[in-house]
């Protein structure tokens, strides 16, 4: 009797190849793609207002930044933030607390695929039932197709069935939609979300995990009839296994681009629409500053968060800042569509779990200060 060779298992795969080219290619695509659409997309604030008369962005910024009070407040905020970060690196208080916090968050890594699937699947299902395509600003000419696409892709991701293939289909649909309507740049966070899901797969709990257990056991009937597990799923998982470590890079680069885009293009370059939001919700009664300072402050804050996430600087801290910004926006703007933000909420939460990862300033800082380095999370670890 010929002994059958052992069958590969998804749980014990070892990838191959260097992931460096992947990170470089991702950055190159972002560099080429974003400028093509920056001048054409509409403002994110149009989720809550139909817009206002356009204003000259340069004249607006010159007017806002020549006001001594505005300059003083913005300068104080910037100096305070920079000083606080430098002081933290110098003193590094609450080391034990920070270490335990990071380790506690890192313990959820095995649930990262589930978190990513929820972050992308839930808003897609909502978009499908609402009849829009990824963004509420994109109402396609064929709403039935958009509904079926969102509901099907969303539910398959939530169930974790054919997860990687479904994410690839979703990413393709988004990119095709972006070509047709640049308004979809407002939902650019779907790109890192789909890419991350393609890299990590369904994880647990998922239908893919259950099917893999059945297909991997020679004694099951299903293992004899399954046509995809060993022929498709295992070989693909082998090829991408070594790139899973780049998931934090993919997430923070994608979210960094998203926040920077919202800050620069949607606010600083479109001050008229942003001023309409300030007036609609009487935000100057919440914080008594000039409306111009509201717009500039919001734009600069989102830009700072985006740049920090992009380069991996204090990643978990700025992920927390991003989470706070999103939360206050939803509570402060009661008619803002919650479904349009679930994806960002979920992906920012994923960064709280993963940390900065490779190719980050956090890693460089850790090497410079001579601390132990957690190569998985990409942040400083203080020994017990």
TrEMBL record:
One of the Pfam families matching this protein, by short name: DoxX
Transmembrane portions of the chain: 21-38, 71-91, 111-134, 146-177, 184-203, 303-326, 338-357
Alphabetical list of InterPro entries matching this protein: DoxX, DoxX-like_oxidoreductase
Protein's cellular compartments: Cell membrane
Keywords in alphabetical order: Cell membrane, Membrane, Transmembrane, Transmembrane helix
Top-level taxon of origin: Archaea
Membrane topology, from the record: Multi-pass membrane protein
Record keyword Cell membrane present: yes
Single GO cellular component term: plasma membrane
Protein name (Swiss-Prot/TrEMBL): DoxX family protein
Lineage: Archaea, Methanobacteriati, Methanobacteriota, Stenosarchaea group, Halobacteria
């Amino acid at each position: 009797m010929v002994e059958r060779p052992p069958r590969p298992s998804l749980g014990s795969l070892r990838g191959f190849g260097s992931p460096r080219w992947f990170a470089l290619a991702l950055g190159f695509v972002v560099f080429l793609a974003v400028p093509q659409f920056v001048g054409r997309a509409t403002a994110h604030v149009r989720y809550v207002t139909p817009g206002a008369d356009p204003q000259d962005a340069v004249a607006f910024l010159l007017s806002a930044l020549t006001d001594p009070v505005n300059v003083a407040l913005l300068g104080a905020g910037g100096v305070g933030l920079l000083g606080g970060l430098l002081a933290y690196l110098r003193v590094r208080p609450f080391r034990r607390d920070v270490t335990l916090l990071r380790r506690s968050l890192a313990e959820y890594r095995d649930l990262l695929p589930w978190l990513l699937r929820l972050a992308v699947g839930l808003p897609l299902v909502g978009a499908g039932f609402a009849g829009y395509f990824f963004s509420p600003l994109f109402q396609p000419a064929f709403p039935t197709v958009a509904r079926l696409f969102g509901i099907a892709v969303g539910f398959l991701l939530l169930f974790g069935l054919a997860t990687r293939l479904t994410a690839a289909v979703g990413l393709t649909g988004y990119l095709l939609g972006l070509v047709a309507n640049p308004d979809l740049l407002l939902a650019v966070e779907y790109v890192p979300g789909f890419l991350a899901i393609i890299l990590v797969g369904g994880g647990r709990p998922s239908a893919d995990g259950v099917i893999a257990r059945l297909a991997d056991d020679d004694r099951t009937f299903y293992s004899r009839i399954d046509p995809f597990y060993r022929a498709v799923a295992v070989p693909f998982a082998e090829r991408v296994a070594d790139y899973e470590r780049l998931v934090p890079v993919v997430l923070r680069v994608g979210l960094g681009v998203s926040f920077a885009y919202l800050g620069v293009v949607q606010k600083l370059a479109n001050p008229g629409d942003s001023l309409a939001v300030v007036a609609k919700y009487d935000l100057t009664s919440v914080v008594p500053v000039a409306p111009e300072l509201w717009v500039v402050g919001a734009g600069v804050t989102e830009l700072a968060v985006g740049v920090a996430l992009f380069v991996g600087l204090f990643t978990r801290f700025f992920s927390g800042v991003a989470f706070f910004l999103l939360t206050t926006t939803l509570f402060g703007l009661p008619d803002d569509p919650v479904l349009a933000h679930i994806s960002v909420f979920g992906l920012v939460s994923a960064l709280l779990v993963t940390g900065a990862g490779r190719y980050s300033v956090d890693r460089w800082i850790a090497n410079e200060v001579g601390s132990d380095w957690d190569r998985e999370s990409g942040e400083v670890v203080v020994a017990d």
